Amino acid sequence: MNHKQQLQQGLQVLGLSLSTAQQLLLLEYVALLKKWNSTYNLTALRDEATMISHHVLDSLTLLPYIENAQTLMDVGSGGGMPGIPTAICRPDLQITLLDSNTKKTTFLQQAVIELGLNNVTVASGRVEAMYDKKVDVVTSRAFAELGDFIALTKHLLNENGYWAAMKGVYPYEELEHVPSGIEVLKVDKIDVPMLHAERHMVLMRPKQA
Fold first, then answer.
1. Is the dihedral angle over the CA atoms 11, 115, 47, 198 positive or is it negative?
2. What number of CA atoms fall less than 13 Å from residue 13's CA on the CB side?
3. In the chain, beta strands by DSSP E
4. Cβ distance 139 to 74 under 8 Å?
5. Could you read off the pLDDT of 10-60 as tens digits, one per residue?
């Protein structure tokens, strides 16, 4: 199975219908990731097939959870997951990719230019210093424990905003340390095609007064 077929099969399992242009952009993103990886150490994965399952398809499991969002921030974006695959699939969604590592944001800038993603802004710096933007959804993939993630990013949510935290195994202990002013809306088990590891999506929001 070639990479294109692998991607198409994965999209089918996820129930996502993407245009040929979008599919090509996702494959181009994986090629960029592979090309820059040797210099910039963006991911521990080395081959494109694994990048498609572990990075692209894994990132796209976010889509059903942000259907009504207009703005999103991917905190600790690293090599651009989940922000870049999401941006390719949702050109109407304004996305900010934030990372404190300047090597990684250099790659992100380049990827955004080469992929022609007009809906993406790259921000370099620490999340706690980011005060000029509020968004509908703050997401991250393995950025920090839930309690820290909430504390570091609460100021980024607009009045109806919520968190979509992408996690591996069920975060029992982390959920116990979620602050009292925060409501956990749901914790869903996610099945990622061709990825044999546990994944969970945690949706949270500040308790409504």
1. negative
2. 17
3. 71-75, 94-99, 120-124, 135-141, 157-167, 182-190, 199-206
4. yes
5. 999 999 999 999 999 999 999 999 999 988 888 888 899 999 999 999 999
> Which residues lie closer than 8 Å to 200 by C-beta, 6 or more apart?
166, 167, 168, 169, 170, 171, 187, 188, 189, 190
Threshold 0.85, pTM exceeds? yes
Give the distance, in angstroms, between the CA of residue 5 and the centroid of all CA atoms in the same chain: 23
Q: Which residues lie across from 137 on neighbouring strands?
A: 72, 162
Look up residue 14 and give its amino acid: L
Strand ranges in 70-156 using DSSP code E only, listed in sequence order: 71-75, 94-99, 120-124, 135-141
For the chain, the maximum distance between any two Cα atoms, rounded to a whole number of angstroms, is: 53
List the structure tokens of 172: 């029992």
Q: Quickly tell me which residue has 């999401």 as its tokens.
A: 86
